[in-house]
């Protein structure tokens, strides 16, 4: 205990340096956010939320979304822990960047009931400022990779993180190994509890009538075509996808390849390049239909990926075909009943792949690169039986590993953050049981939070 106290005393000095540095760089951060907005990497209208400024003055109910940039995916499955258990009257805000000015502005305006951070999102200003205001903190799906552990184990960094971790009321790690690393960094053992992997918190969801109409229309547009989709594609990965498409279309003349880039601007750049090559491409943001001559459909819009998984039998998950990348969540595609493929570079998602393939060997097909991806897709597009077996295995594996995770994590939250018995918390704080929703910067806040005029805050990473 004395050792921990000594390190935490040094952490106070380390944080003072961090906070001073964040004040110095604040003007540069403002310029960075403006630049990212111009590049399509920040929300066109709500970018000021990243600087801690409310987008709805006078409102006092908020569920901030991830601190990271919105992606074509469902957003953060982590917010499913409370989403739709809570009232529809809540507004949504992006979490602030970790400058002292942005955090102070955000917390000063919203005055939240709790702060939920995700995975490795350990932001000193947000953590210390929340603790100073008496706001309880939780780290959900807590992750500490070997690389991060080594970085945090350096003397100055160790003093800072040991002090940060002491401010939490709950740390819910992904595994025993992660839990040990947090304890070695002096996290109090009594706050470490296991609940399950929230990346599985997707499940079934209701599609609004307008989106359902669009979905049915898309299904009709590709009804007589062979279809596969490459989702969450990063810069550089489009070359892999397009090379595979060129080979496949030689065999299957009625093929449609759907490409969903990680960032909308990237999608428009791909479409422009393909049109210059006189390749028939349709762009979703332009409301262009998939005609009989369309061979590539590019989705350059936000918040539709989970819905789009319903129109494709095959989903290739991007962020996994270049060495500097580390994969993306497979569960949305598996939940939708797609045959799931991914590349070799999957980072911590390897844990998810192992879990699913242990239960169902055919649930995830991890290929070594472009050539193996091409062969895998040839097999699936040409063999209806093999395709159906993969789709069924993916859905069954997802169902097996996802069961009860939301409930278990919610129980931890009610016990350690809300400090109420789970049933009482559900009665006073929630509106409905397990939620699944569209996301991408969307969420909801709680009945109790609304009645008290104070929001519950969720910040997170991907």
From TrEMBL:
Print the keywords alphabetically. Coiled coil, Transferase
Which segments show compositional bias classed as Low complexity? 64-73
Picking any one GO molecular function of the record gives: Kdo transferase activity
Q: Which InterPro entries match?
A: Glycos_transf_N (IPR007507), Glycos_transf_N_sf (IPR038107), Kdotransferase (IPR039901)
Q: Does the keyword S-adenosyl-L-methionine apply?
A: no
One GO cellular-component annotation of the UniProt record comes to: plasma membrane
Q: Which residues form a coiled coil?
A: 370-397
> Which GO annotations describe the biological process of this protein?
lipid A biosynthetic process
- UniProt cross-references to SUPFAM superfamilies, sorted A to Z: UDP-Glycosyltransferase/glycogen phosphorylase
Domain (3-deoxy-D-manno-octulosonic-acid transferase N-terminal): residue spans on this chain:
80-201
Disordered: annotated span:
54-75, 436-462
First-tier enzyme category under EC? transferase
Task: Indicate yes or no for the key word Nucleus.
Answer: no
Tell me the protein family, please. Answer: Belongs to the glycosyltransferase group 1 family. Glycosyltransferase 30 subfamily.
- Record's protein name: lipid IVA 3-deoxy-D-manno-octulosonic acid transferase
Q: Which organism is it from?
A: Spirodela intermedia
């Amino acid at each position: 205990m004395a050792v921990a106290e000594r390190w935490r005393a040094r952490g106070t000095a380390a944080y003072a340096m961090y906070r001073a540095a964040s004040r110095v760089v604040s003007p540069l951060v403002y310029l960075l956010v403006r630049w990212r907005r111009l590049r399509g990497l920040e929300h066109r209208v709500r970018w000021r939320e990243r600087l801690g400024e409310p987008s709805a003055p006078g409102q006092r109910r908020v569920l901030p979304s991830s601190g990271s940039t919105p992606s074509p995916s469902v957003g953060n499955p982590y917010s499913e822990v409370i989403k739709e258990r809570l009232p529809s009257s809540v507004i949504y805000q992006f979490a602030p960047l970790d400058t002292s000015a942005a955090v102070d502005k955000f917390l000063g305006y919203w005055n939240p009931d709790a702060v939920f951070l995700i995975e490795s999102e350990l932001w000193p200003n947000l953590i210390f400022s929340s603790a100073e205001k008496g706001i309880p903190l939780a780290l959900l799906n807590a992750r500490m990779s070997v690389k991060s552990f080594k970085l945090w184990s350096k003397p100055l960094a160790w003093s800072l993180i040991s002090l940060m971790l002491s401010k939490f009321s709950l740390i819910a790690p992904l595994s025993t190994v992660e839990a040990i690393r947090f304890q070695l960094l002096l996290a109090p053992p009594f706050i470490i509890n296991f609940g399950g992997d929230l990346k599985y918190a997707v499940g079934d969801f209701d599609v609004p009538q307008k989106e359902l109409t669009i979905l049915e229309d898309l299904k009709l547009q590709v009804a007589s075509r062979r279809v596969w989709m490459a989702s969450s594609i990063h810069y550089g990965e489009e070359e892999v996808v397009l090379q595979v498409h060129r080979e496949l279309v030689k065999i299957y003349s009625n093929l449609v390849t759907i490409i969903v880039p990680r960032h909308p601007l990237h999608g428009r750049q791909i479409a422009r390049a393909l049109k210059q090559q006189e390749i028939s491409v349709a762009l979703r943001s332009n409301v262009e239909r998939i005609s009989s001559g369309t061979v590539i459909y590019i989705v350059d819009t936000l918040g539709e990926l989970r819905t789009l998984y319903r129109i494709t039998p095959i989903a290739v998950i991007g962020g996994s075909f270049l060495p500097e990348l580390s994969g993306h969540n497979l569960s949305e595609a598996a939940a939708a009943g797609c045959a799931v493929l991914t590349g070799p570079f999957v980072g911590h998602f390897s844990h998810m792949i192992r879990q699913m393939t242990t239960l169902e060997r055919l649930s995830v097909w991890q290929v070594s690169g472009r050539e193996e991806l091409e062969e895998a897709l040839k097999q699936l597009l040409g063999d209806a039986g093999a395709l159906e077996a993969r789709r069924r295995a993916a859905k069954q594996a997802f169902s097996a590993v996802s069961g009860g995770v939301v409930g278990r994590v919610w129980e931890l939250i009610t016990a350690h953050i809300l400090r109420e018995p789970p049933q009482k918390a559900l009665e006073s704080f929630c509106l409905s049981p397990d939620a699944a929703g569209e996301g991408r910067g969307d969420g909801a806040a709680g009945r109790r939070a609304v009645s008290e005029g104070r929001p519950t805050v969720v910040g997170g990473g991907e």
